[in-house]
């Protein structure tokens, strides 16, 4: 049976990544809608989003009015995912595929339990330096999507359908053979970059040019490498060097999502970064003192003003 070409896209989450990907699909002619309810629905319907100074007034669909689409892109903060699952389900039909561009190691498993693991592909976004202020998103580097099944030795028809859609949308992607290793690589990047930048209050430029900032980042990442190797994931210190090459392509003024959250007084994703590292360390009997300290520091930052 020939599966239908992907032509309709629903985006759950209208932050920096969600707005960027929605604008790309929309410009390529996909039937694109944001998923929202309540005040978020009203704000998106009235104001839309502005991406690199270009306004986009995309459709906004309330879950109660939903029908299945071909592709769902999930771009939420981790602490919002469980509450959003009922809003996601009405958009998923027999041939719908789901991509999560969320951070961390767990979103695909959570989504798979909600809508069926066969519909969910692993995915990470690397190297995008998008910054959100209100409904305005700016970026200089669009980055790359790494996505696929856990093992892509043979590329599945589902992956091929998404590859064709990303080609049409002009989005750069790669389908690696070992997607689980890439998932851990992105987790290592987030644990190091997001937490170090949030505590130091530093944009990408500090990590591009200051050895001291690099040392902090690498100390956090080193604990992730230890955990990955314990689980037989082939992550090494060469992967830090690979990240550094990507880091040099980002805007020096760009900021990680966690630094943006701290500056805006929003809840961060520290539990899924430092918190996850500390939990896995205890599970495997591997000390993770650097991440434990950063976890506590960021939890304090979340409670400002003191």
Tell me which CATH architecture of the largest domain applies here. Answer: 3-Layer(aba) Sandwich
Taking pLDDT < 50 over at least 5 consecutive residues as the criterion, the unreliable ranges are none
Number of strands: 12
Query: What's the main sheet like?
Result: 8 strands, mixed
Please give the alpha-carbon distance between the first and last residues: 61 Å
Number of helices: 12
Fold-level CATH name of the largest domain: Rossmann fold
- Assign an overall shape: globular
Average predicted confidence as pLDDT? 96
Tell me the strand order in the biggest sheet.
Answer: 5-2-1-6-7-8-11-12
Please, what is the CATH homologous superfamily of the largest domain? NAD(P)-binding Rossmann-like Domain
The gyration radius over C-alpha positions equals 19 Å
The total tally of domains equals: 2
Beta-strand share of residues: 15-25%
* Helical content (DSSP H or I, runs of 4+): 40-55%
Polypeptide structure, described:
The chain has helices at residues 16-27, 38-47, 78-88, 107-115, 157-169, 179-200, 204-209, 211-230, 238-247, 257-264, 274-284, 289-301; strands spanning 8-12, 31-35, 49-51, 54-56, 59-61, 69-74, 92-100, 120-128, 131-133, 136-138, 142-148, 173-174. The protein is 47% helix and 19% strand. A hairpin with a 2-residue loop joins strand 9 (131-133) and strand 10 (136-138). By secondary structure, the chain is α/β, with parallel strands linked by helices. The longest helix has 22 residues, at 179-200. It has 2 domains: 8-177, NAD(P)-binding Rossmann-like Domain (Rossmann fold), CATH 3.40.50; 180-301, N-(1-d-carboxylethyl)-l-norvaline Dehydrogenase, domain 2, CATH 1.10.1040.10. Helix 8 packs across helix 11 (274-284). It has 12 helices and 12 strands. It has an 8-stranded mixed β-sheet, sandwiched between helices. A 4-stranded mixed β-sheet has the order 4-3-10-9, with helices on one face.
